[in-house]
Write a structure and sequence with these properties.
The complex is a heterodimer of chains A (123) and B (482). With 123 residues, chain A is an all-alpha fold. Helices cover 65% and strands 0% of the residues of chain A. Chain A has a domain of 66 residues. Chain A is built from four helices and no strands. Chain A starts with 5 loop residues before the first helix and ends in a 7-residue tail after the last helix. Chain B is mainly alpha-helical and 482 residues long. Chain B has a domain of 200 residues. Chain B is 74% helix and 1% strand. The chains are: A mainly alpha (123), B mainly alpha (482).
Chain lengths: 123, 482
């Protein structure tokens, strides 16, 4: 019973050991860093002074690109299992091929639409 | 395995959506006139094809399955598709009046409305919990956007947020119910769930799941006590989106409710009849009384919608084929009369109008055509013979008397009288002399004229000669109750 958890215990020990070891090693060997206010500031990608005021407006172009990314991300997620079963299911007819083709076609149409509407202009 | 030929109607709508989307990406602005009319014509052609059987059903009692039994086409599903296609065509035509075909976002709005209509078409065919939920969400997600469409208008945004929050809550309740039903029945398929309902009707998990399903759908059809979102969402939404809410989303709720009550959970009918009847009576009275003090046409129509939901719930509380057929007839009458009212509203004011009742003053003088449409639509909603609304109410009350008792029938009559009063308030406002500040009216275009004429003709035809649709409705009800 308790032996079943040995693996988790080992993982825990390794994680603590690795993090602690790295921190200890750098504390012992590295040069003392110079600090300044800019270095101590919390960092967030793309946003200056992220912690200053939470109610800021930020550019919609990030959001658009995120949405487009998720679209194609989901497409890949869907393509992988399709590719795995493709060889077996194509024996039973072309439905699986046509189905994926129409799915990709719909995505492509949406992509063309987004492109024409200037979603990729980055302005 | 999926047989695409069974899905031909749905695939055609998907094709239409892609065509509008790509057309919007490439077409020049000047070439966009008549897009609304073209899309609506395509939808109506599809509706005619569906009404003729769409080449899928060999006869009225046949059942065709696909997608591993998750998608069913029978006479009931085909009727739902006809209804959804016609209602979508109405919404598209309204959009081509306000905001208009050259307004930015017109094509996107049409695509979303087509998506909502597509959701209802699939929902009519849903034969397992997955297709049920996915099609319901397809409708809901499009509607969240459509309700908040005028994003520069705080009222529209407020409506959108309220609808989104309530809708997400209802979806969560629905999903929880589905999870419990799945856990109790061990399958997503409606057929197997029906067997489980027949053999294990004492399972508390199944009953709890069923109750949660009913609560989630109660939100969709704005049944008391899940109706609170309705007036706010209607008031803020642009009129075409309001039309999509009440001509597509609400009927879809009733369609799947009928499928659940009369097919999947039919073995429990002695158990659900009472609660559904009580909810119907409460909804009816709430809608009939709540609208009395309204001074805004959109809020008033929301309460009117609640009261109509009460009527249809009472029809469903009669566990007979006549109950289903009466509900379907009532839905059709509602589509025709509410469609007329929405068309008159779209014609009488531009985008962003508030539709306070006093803004309607002088409509009878400024545009007799629109005032006539409004009048006919309101009389249809109120149930004045010989319009279709009258026979709808008559059929429902007849079912209620024989199945639920005189008390419920009295509630139905009381609610109907209350709502008739506030329809007459609107009529009075529209026929009163013009006050200062009433907005001017743009000339009524050809497509709007054609739409009002078609809806008015339908309202009269279905009302004066119910036999013209009764056979089809009866077949649909027979297909549902097997």
């Amino acid at each position: 019973m308790i032996q079943d958890y040995i693996g988790i215990g080992l993982l825990l020990l390794t994680a603590i050991g690795f993090c602690g070891g790295v921190l200890l090693f750098s504390a012992l060997t590295a040069q003392k860093a110079h600090t300044n206010p800019a270095k101590d500031e919390a960092y967030e990608c793309g946003l200056p002074a992220a912690m200053a005021e939470p109610r800021i407006r930020f550019s919609v172009k990030f959001y658009l690109i995120a949405v487009l990314f998720i679209l194609f991300d989901i497409e890949t997620v869907f393509l992988y299992p399709w590719a795995v079963v493709f060889r077996d299911m194509i024996q039973g007819g072309w439905t699986i091929f046509v189905a994926m083709l129409s799915f990709l076609g719909i995505l492509a149409a949406a992509f063309v639409y987004a492109w024409r509407k200037g979603a990729l202009d980055g302005r | 395995m999926i047989h695409p030929s069974v899905l031909r109607l749905e695939l055609a709508v998907v094709g239409l959506m892609l065509a509008v989307l790509l057309g919007d990406a490439f077409a020049r602005k000047a070439s966009r006139r008549y897009w609304g009319a073209a899309v609506a014509a395509a939808l109506l052609a599809l509706a005619g094809y569906a009404a003729a059987g769409a080449g899928i059903l060999p006869n009225a009692s046949a059942r065709v399955f696909t997608a591993e039994g998750g998608f069913l086409v029978d006479a009931f599903a085909l009727w739902v598709k006809v209804f959804a296609l016609v209602a979508t065509a109405v919404c598209v035509l309204l959009t081509s009046r306000t905001p208009g075909e050259d307004a930015p976002g017109f094509a996107e709005q049409v695509v979303l409305q087509l998506g909502v209509g597509l959701g209802m078409m699939v929902l009519g065919s849903a034969r397992d919990l997955i297709s049920f939920y996915v099609s319901l969400e397809l409708m809901a997600i499009g509607l969240y956007l459509l309700v908040a469409w005028r994003k520069e208008d705080p009222l529209s945004l407020e409506a959108g947020v309220k609808y989104l929050v309530y809708g997400a809550m209802a979806s969560a309740i629905l999903l929880y119910g589905m999870a419990l039903v799945y856990g109790a029945a061990g399958s997503l398929e409606f057929g197997i769930i029906r067997q489980a309902a027949a053999t294990r009707s004492d399972s508390i998990v199944l009953l709890a799941g069923f109750a949660l399903l009913l609560a989630g759908l109660g939100f969709k059809v704005s049944a008391v006590p899940f109706h609170w979102w309705t007036p706010d969402a209607y008031e803020g939404a642009p009129v075409p989106s309001m039309a999509a809410l009440s001509l597509l989303s609400k009927p879809a709720g009733f369609i799947i409710l009928a499928r659940l009550l009369f097919d999947v959970f039919w073995p429990l009918h002695a158990m659900w009849q009472g609660p559904v009847a009580w909810a119907g009576a409460a909804t009816l009275l709430w809608g009939g009384l709540g609208g009395l003090s309204q001074t805004n046409l959109k809020r008033l129509l929301a309460y009117s919608g609640i009261s109509h939901s009460g009527f249809m719930l009472l029809a469903l509380a009669s566990p007979t084929r006549s109950g289903v057929a009466a509900m379907l007839y009532y839905l059709l009458a509602y589509l025709l009369s509410a469609g007329l009212v929405f068309t008159a509203m779209c014609g009488a004011a531009g985008p962003g109008a508030r539709y306070d009742l006093r803004d309607l003053s002088g409509l009878g003088r400024k545009s007799p055509w629109l005032a006539g449409a409004l009048l006919l639509g309101l009389f249809g909603l109120g149930g004045i013979p010989p319009l279709a609304g009258f026979f709808g109410k008559l059929l429902v009350i007849r079912c209620v008397v024989s199945e639920s008792g005189w008390g419920f029938a009295a509630a139905a009559v009381g609610g109907a009288v209350g709502s008739l009063y506030y329809y007459l308030v609107v009529v009075k406002a529209a026929l009163s002399p013009e006050e200062n500040g009433a907005p001017p009216i743009a000339p009524v275009g050809r497509s709007l004229r054609a739409l009002t004429a078609a809806l008015a003709f339908g309202l009269l035809l279905v009302g004066a000669w119910p036999a013209s649709v009764w056979g089809a409705l009866r077949n649909a009800a027979e297909a549902l109750c097997q």
